[in-house]
Amino acid sequence: MSWGTELWDQYDNLSFHTQKGIDFLERYGHFIRDRCLIEMEYAGKLRRLVKNYQPKKKEEEEYQYSTCKAFKAMLCEVNDLAGQHEVIAENLQSDVIREINYLVKDIKEERKKLLQDSAKYVAMINNQVASLERSRKNYEKAFKEAERALDNFQRADADLNLSRAEVEKQRMNMAIKNQHCEESKNEYANQLQKTNELQSQHYKALMPEVFRQLQELDEKRIRNVRHFMAHSADVERNVFPIINKCLDGIINAANQVNEKQDTILVIERYKSGFEPPGDFPFDDLSRGGESTPLILPGSGNTYVSSGVGAHRSESMTVKGTMSAGKLKKRVGLFAIFSSNKDDYSELPPNQRRKKILQKLDEMQAKLHQEIAAKDGLMKMKGVYESNPALGDPMSTEGQLNECSQRIDKLNSDIAKYQGLLQEVECNVSPAGTRKHELTEHNGIGNGSTNNLSNHNNRINTSLTDGRAPLGEDESLSRSASDSSVSIPAVGLNNRYSGETVSLGASRNSLANDEDPPPYYDIHDLPPLGTCTALYAFEATSEGSIPMFDGEQLLIIEQDQGDGWTRVRRQPPNVEEGFVPTSYISIHSS
């Protein structure tokens, strides 16, 4: 079926139909554009929703429960869902809307060109028909004049009163009119032939070609509308896997909700550590004394009775036990100036212990950072001393002093809070405390303390060898400025808890003690493996030892990331020190 043959006489309707098709395509493009705006608006509202419901800083403590953690994870997944809706909008804009705009522009230009051609063809046939009509009218006029001239000649020839000249004149007029009529007839026949030929070409070749191209243009539009609809669905389907992952993430977050775990967290958060109140004493009024009104537990007040053993101090109020509220301390006038809120003394014992443990974790993390910073400064100073062209060694003195002061301050604070922690552990009854958590905090540790395990291990190794921890003697040079760094001896023997170990203490100072403990013997450390020297090395700084190419050595301490490995010579010449890690080949033990 072709428009050129079936709709040869529907030029106006086809022109109107193609224009309506372009209008529909533009309308579909506007629909996709508005949908993109809705997707972007929806994504933006989802992101604002997630932002509005993000936990505030003051609510962070509440988000330790599994329900709150699951809700926070769900917010992250919803935020990812918003991102997928943005992806849908962006892909529709780039893959559909842009292509629709290009297609509309091309179809409009092609249609305009075809309509111009068709208008030209219609004008040509109309002009030819007008020429045919004029030639027909001329022929009709000439024919009537020829008939009139013949009639006049016949009347003149029959009239005997007219002269021969008059008759000849009418005969000549008749001949002229007949000749003119014949010429008009021939012109009319010629125009008729040309018109028929042009009309046949117009309706069988020219206009059908225009209609065919209009038909192809309309079919192209229809095909592309189908493609755009399918592609729009594909754009959305392509993000379904990620959307499903987001939904799976929400389900997984929901599955992490654990009511038993939250119950334990509530207990740990609000447990005061007090014992439940005992029986109320009997007031024997016959013995004298005044009766004191009894206050029910949980009211926040103490009770005092005249009976023996009936006095309960204010510090043992049951408020923290029954309502988990904070204890109120009664302070005198001078206590205003001497009280210190940093010891968390206003909290119940169990909550106070928890706060002190958190404070110790924070300070130990800061101490580790300060020690690492000082070690870096010492190495920089050693490099400057070995190569003054790189910098002035004295330029680091100010920073070293400040770092040492901060480390001393942290040491004193840690010792203070360790004392508070021991005080709390001693005061809390066995039924309401877990003293082994102190060992876990100092030795194994939990939370942020785990980050210090490697640091504590180096402290233990250094103490048993008499060297300063964290590579204090491993730098290329040492001076008297590195004598004030100390850290709490956490993770050591319990009888040394709370003590500090000087980072600047050298191996000789420990070895020269009159009665060094047996665990300070440098030969007690078992070797971790063996190594072979790849190159000869000359010891140029304190703490390092020379070695020759191919020498077999024992590894005492692995490289801690500073490029130096602690080794020991084979007996009988037992000498220990540091060598560059890149100069040796390490073998397994």
UniProtKB/TrEMBL annotation:
One of its GO terms (cellular component) is cytoplasm. This is Formin-binding protein 1-like. Keywords: Cell membrane, Coiled coil, Cytoplasm, Endocytosis, Membrane, SH3 domain. Residues 1-262 form the F-BAR domain. The keyword S-adenosyl-L-methionine does not apply. It is found in: Cell membrane; Cytoplasm. Its main location: membrane. Residues 447-462, 477-486 have a biased composition (Low complexity). GO terms for biological process: endocytosis; signal transduction. Belongs to the FNBP1 family.
